Amino acid sequence: MKRTLLVAVLFMLLGISAQAQSRLVGNWEGAIKSVKTIRLVFHIKEEGGKLTGTMDSPDQGVTDIGCKSVTAKGDSVTVDMSNIGVVYKGHLLNDSVINGVWLQGGVSVPIDFMKTANPAELYRPQTPKPPFSYISEDIIYTNKDKSVQYGATITIPKGKGPFPAVLLITGSGQQNRDEEIFGHRPFAVIADYLTKRGYVVMRVDDRGMGKTTGDLSKATTAIFAQDAEVSFDYLKARKEVDRSKMGLLGHSEGGMIAEMMAAKRKDIDFIVLLAAPGINVKELMQDQAAMVMASGGVDSNIVAQYKKLYAAMEEAGLSASSEVDGKEKMTQALKNWKEHATQNAISTVGVVTADEEREYVAQMFKIITNTWFNYFLRFDPQPYLRNISCKVLALDGSRDIQVPAGPDLQGIKESLLKSKSKSYEIKELPGLNHLFQNCNTCTVNEYAVLTETMSPEALRIIGEWLDAKVKQ
Fold first, then answer.
1. What is the DSSP letter of 184?
2. Three-state DSSP class for residue 25
3. Residue 357 — φ and ψ, nearest 5°?
4. Do β-strands 97-104 and 107-116 pair in parallel, antiparallel, or remain unpaired?
């Protein structure tokens, strides 16, 4: 009798737990309210009888943060995100409300989550949505030996072709075909805009991203350039394309790739460079490191000192013959810098103690000797630019802290003056950041906060230049 009762109780508890799990499945929206409201969204699913979840923070431009675990016992709910230092504990008041507390850094904040069919999303009004006024086709193709598969989207104007065509090439870091970052999809916006103006546009998932395969472990910009050539050849074979009016649009590292390809191939009619390197990348990264630090409010004197340290660490890492040699050179460079640096600068960099010095050297050695970054630092775009004969449009934002416009555009101009190109235009666009957004603080963190994906003025300049120089 007791055993029968125990089994019945166990089944009842399991039923309650399963019911709680079922009630939790869905989207839950809440908000932290302090100086400003920060919306939070849990996406909870049930897989194999177990709850899983992700979290978005739309106002911070963050999506798909994985939850370590989601548990439900009776009406009690725990969402463990200790991987980012957060735990949410609450109680299901009914099928649509969780009353609970957000625990982070020793602080407890009360938050209620409401179940919703339409959770808050990042507001990105420029992202194109179907139905489109043109043909949009998702495609798969491979390189010659079929070792790499590429996933892409090609957009084609309606009407009688063939049409001028442009291949879009993404910036550094693994990105999908839309060059998606913080919910912004700049390449989708560019493709939509240019296709409506009468251009075939192709955008491709990066190696190891989305539908594109390929080994990333030893990949460099040169390997990515080979991938771009495969895509260009595929585009060239499309019947909708006018082969005499084909070109490239590259953003940041994608601009480097456009420079490399245009210097090599004579079937490229034009390139559009968006924040593409115009000077030695080693120098560019020194400027970037300083400007990013300055954008965080660090005193200009400390920034100037840090720039010298960064340059010294670059030189030590790039000249290393081995790990031991590299770390010895970096350690000595750091010691030499500390002899002349102010205490404030040393504290800001975080290299006060011997342990902090060792940690800093280890981190910098790992970064600078990374296969991709090591190649990237050694890259000098000027020999490629001087060997270009096609049409060129080069644009930089005046508020870009990743590719400072002044020295960058000057480097492009000086190189193109020595090139065979008979048609080039170089412009600094006021008020725009590295993503070509109109910005306010113009920090990297602000990319996510801005609702604008890409300046309409930048799009207009690209479109009008292409119409004048390519279509005619």
1. B
2. coil
3. -60, -50
4. antiparallel
Using pLDDT thresholds of 50, 70 and 90, give the confidence band for residue 14. Answer: very low
Residue 112 to residue 37: CA distance in whole angstroms:
14
Question: What's the half-sphere exposure (Cβ side, CA atoms, 13 Å) at 143?
Answer: 15
C-alpha 42: how far from chain center = 23
Contact 356, 228 (CB under 8 A): no
Range list of β-strands (E), 285-398:
391-397
For the chain, the distance separating the N- and C-terminal CA atoms, rounded to the nearest angstrom, is: 92
Tokens in use for 115? 């179940």
- What does each C-alpha distance from 304 to 310, 338, 363, 441, 453 come to in angstroms? 10, 14, 21, 21, 32
Phi, psi of 125 (to 5 degrees): -65, -20
According to DSSP, the β-strands at 391-397 and 424-429 are parallel
State pTM to two decimals. Answer: 0.81
Q: Which residue has the tokens 């075939």?
A: 200
Residue 298, SS3?
Answer: coil
Sketch the domain layout of the chain as residue ranges: 23-116, 135-280+379-471, 282-376
Nearest CA to 38 among 16, 17, 62?
62
Instruction: Answer yes or no: CATH 3.30.300.20 is held by domain 135-280+379-471.
Output: no
- Cβ contact 277:376 at 8 Å: no
Domain 23-116 listed as CATH 2.40.128 = yes
Cβ–Cβ contacts within 10 Å for residue 208, how many?
14
| pLDDT digit string, tens, across residues 292-306 | 999 989 999 999 999
